[in-house]
Queue: 2 jobs
Job 1
Amino acid sequence: MDPVNLREYEQAAKDRLDPDLYDYFAGGAQDEVTLRANEAAFRRLMLVPRVLTGAGEPALDVTILGRTASMPVLVAPTAFHRLAHPEGELATGRAVAAAGGIMITAMLSTVAMEEVAATGAELWFQFYLQPDPGYTEHLVRRAEAAGCRALVITVDSPALRTGERARSALLELPAGLSCPNLGGDGDIRQVTLSPEISWEHVDRLRRTTSLPIVLKGILHPADAALAVAHGADAIIVSNHGGRQLDSAAATIDRLPAVADAVGGRVPVLLDGGVRRGTDVVKALALGARAVAIGRPVVWGLSVAGADGVAHVLALLRAELANALTLCGLGSAGQVPRDLVVTDGPAAA
Ligand code: FNR
């Protein structure tokens, strides 16, 4: 039986993945406080729908950085897709291309960005700013040449977290798998996560490229304002899916303050714990232009390759359309803030 929602996809993936691999994908840092909080925070928010609006079938497409996506749900960057399925990021790319979506492809992809781009998916390239400016520039030029439409800089990772459930800091990939975006031989230590990285590196990047720059991993409104001041074209409110700083705040809880600080100057996106169409609606109401999903894509990939990713995206799309309709709304681009109240019950 096909899974009917994203949670069932997780269970189906768990049933078929090697337990260590499942833990690598599913796990978070330390006590997994943040991992759980991301989802729990969505459950605390309640919706106050409008009635008799006559809004008709809702329009789901959104424009971000001048590009139109068929729905306000992007694929977040997750490493090592070939651990989930032999076709890896190629399968993900095909599904995203077919869905008219946007895929943020990872520096730590197990398929070269050029090959993922060849699937026809709209691609944004995620990487970590490197202490060696020559290496950063090399990555930027390569992403430009591959046709990536934006650079997504993950800024929540001045160090690798200490993992536990994820026994896998996964410092070495199995034989036969590599990270070709690193020019690599599978040795992911070629990526340096450095606490020396600062806004100066963002400034340098801004001078290096005319591609849009998206800063991923912002939770504090002051950082959101700094991001805009330093030339970011969009920001992603994210805590890395609870995989870096444990006890980092839940993303949906931080979204309103970040959206206020940005004041509409650049689009704000959010990831972390989005599992239902109603989660997407809540994020849109609280100031996000779109959201991104990480683990659910990996679950779809694990279960059925490109078809599984396509099905995950289709399920969320159908849920989103239904949720908007039940809220009396005609467009994913116009979700009013008063749709959401924060005095819901404590999470189950
Ligand atoms: C990630 N994430 C991530 N982020 C990033 O910027 N670069 C990366 O290489 C990775 N790798 C990665 C691997 C795996 C297995 C997971 C689950 C996550 C974080 C990802 O982009 C995103 O922030 C979260 O996954 C969003 O939370 P959900 O949707 O998984 O709850």
Job 2
Amino acid sequence: PKMAVFASGNGSNFQAIADSIQRGELQAELALVVTDRPAAFVVERAEKLGVPSFAFLPSEYDSKQLYEEMLKEKLQSLGVEWIVLAGYMRLIGPVLLQAFENRIINIHPSVLPAFPGKDAIGQTLAAGAEFAGVTVHYVDAGMDTGKIIAQQSFAVGGRTREAVEKEIHEIEHQLYPATLQQLFNQ
Ligand code: GRF
């Protein structure tokens, strides 16, 4: 299926998805990268891979409804069936939720429902939680509240933040493409 990846930053998860497609493990087509931050590194990654990208500034629209209608038209005109969020730092509104019902997926760096929202890794460590991890879930109107699809966790032990972050990203980069492959083929 055709998918669009939405990202606001580095784009290492986008890269992992693209690499997985290139290896033939994830059978899907990357139709578009969408970003709300034109300077995000994910745009350079997309360029290198030859994936079209589209940057927009939410502040140039009067409402979320208006920019989501614009995105909806763009995605539908490209035949996009799935929206894959990968470090996209905005809530999805009713326009896209309705147009892509049960077709919007997110990855979050905690074992949800624990530690939703920003800096989940920092929250995990500050709480002294025994486990850190990663969740792939459907997107609903809430912040990291949608139905859980896949999770992977590990014991924090005495690890530094740096070590925990590294482990989380390694898990993300294999769990996200693998979970998408399962979803697309069920
Ligand atoms: C990841 O940790 C993801 O779980 C979270 O945002 C981060 C994005 O990283 N939603 P990257 O831009 O894919 O490198």
